[in-house]
Sequence to fold (219 residues):
Amino acid sequence: MLNTILALVAVLVGLALVLNAIRLLLGPSTADRILALDTMYINSIALIVLLGLHLGSDMYFEAALLIAMLGFVGTAALAKYMLRGDIIE
Amino acid sequence: MMFELFEILASALLLIGGFFILIGALGMVKLPDFYTRLHAPTKATTLGIGCILLASLGLHALRGQSLSVQELVISLFLFITAPVSAYMIAKAALHRRTPLVKHTLNRQLSRDIVHRQAPKNASTEAECDD
Fold:
């Protein structure tokens, strides 16, 4: 039963990623695109955690932790660049 | 018996998490302007990934592997950083004068915040950069 549920939830998260990609492609402003990228890294963490559950391995959580940290740094850097025109002044 | 009960609980958590992640993405496609779009991923998606990580924590503990702290660290980190990044993006969008939806109230505030300066005699917060 759990494998069916895992496949179903992976489909849901994949659909959410497709919707985020639509917003990333046609977002009218730069802030929309940054927001879409921010949501996409969170959804990819969900997908990696689901893969780790499916394969029964706990090596995938290090990758998820790495993506969580670097994704926040990337979002902060993009927002800072949009605000000031420069990242490190 | 106990095993199946926990598995059903974890499945329910996984389904709720996937549902909320999908709701967040739908809201980001459907809502009319940037400031309303900001609400969907920062709340619904964070709740969804919290549910999925909680289910993963329970299932890994159930399979007899060591109780891994990494899921807790990931969810704590995401819960801390989601409001911070949303604030930073919103502030950058306000400074770029991203257009508001037509019926927005108190439009003056969105113009005021662009011209807001740091207080003059802030000696302790001298390195505040805007």
